[in-house]
């Protein structure tokens, strides 16, 4: 098993790396770990290698840097060959308000990381995956979207817009890759306990711990699901959300508390 994961130093990305190591222990598994924090990546690498005997390579980078991702992909392919799975898990969230000029930078950063970071992650692997001699499946590209991309949430315009764009982008990519026998999976989770959600001061229904979510994610990937909402309860809610008339949605959302407009180190 050969897996490349962005956003791997914490939260969902780290949980996914751990879940793959648990399911595929041993030296034949190679996991590429990409994130901005070299220290946390090294800690994760050491833990996975010692506990599960897997091989790991770390790539300290920012997914906004397409050159850095291209170099990471080249190194990963040189060491292990074409990946079986590439997971674009890096993502950020922050409250944003359109009327505030000072939030322009946050809008741009959220879109650049959540959308373009995913494009930058997938692009350098596609050629190698297409040339994979395996005929039935030449690999899988997995993008982490969000239920927030299904309907816009007040006070989170940048995040909702970025995840709506991710859902549409992955749908386009899925059709484009079909002829090459490269599968594309969209995972749209609800609330997951991470540093980004720990600051929320409102109720988060069906909140999942990252390790619990990762188990469901990997199972969905292994079943080659095209689009899945996790957990299933949020999936039912998402189906309802799709068909609520705009006037009803506006009424339901008008008293929804906004996400905090905090400073994060990616701004």
Describe this structure in words.
With 267 residues, the protein is of the alpha/beta class. The chain contains eight helices and nine strands. The chain is globular and about 55 Å long. It is 47% helix and 15% strand. The longest helix is centred in the middle third of the chain and has 27 residues, at 104-130. Helix 1 (11-23) crosses helix 6, helix 3 runs parallel beside helix 4 and helix 4 (104-130) runs parallel beside helix 5. The chain has a seven-stranded parallel beta sheet with strand order 3-2-1-4-5-6-9, sandwiched between helices. Strands 7-8 form a two-stranded parallel ribbon. It has helices at 11-23, 38-52, 66-80, 104-130, 157-178, 210-222, 232-243, 246-253, and strands at 2-6, 30-35, 55-60, 85-88, 140-144, 183-189, 192-193, 208-209, 227-230. It starts with a strand and ends in a 14-residue tail after the last helix.
Short synopsis of the structure:
The chain has helices at 11-23, 38-52, 66-80, 104-130, 157-178, 210-222, 232-243, 246-253, and strands spanning 2-6, 30-35, 55-60, 85-88, 140-144, 183-189, 192-193, 208-209, 227-230. By secondary structure, the chain is an alpha/beta fold.
Gyration radius (Cα, Å) is 18 Å
Helix content: 40-55%
Low-confidence stretches: none
Overall structural class, as computed from helix and strand content, comes to alpha/beta
Helices and strands, in order, run as EHEHEHEHEHEEEHEHH
Q: Number of DSSP strands? A: 9
How would you state the average pLDDT, rounded?
93
Give the CA-based shape. globular
How large is the count of helical segments? 8
Report on the biggest sheet: 7 strands, parallel
Strand order of the biggest β-sheet: 3-2-1-4-5-6-9
**N- to C-terminal distance:** 35 Å
- Beta percentage is 15-25%
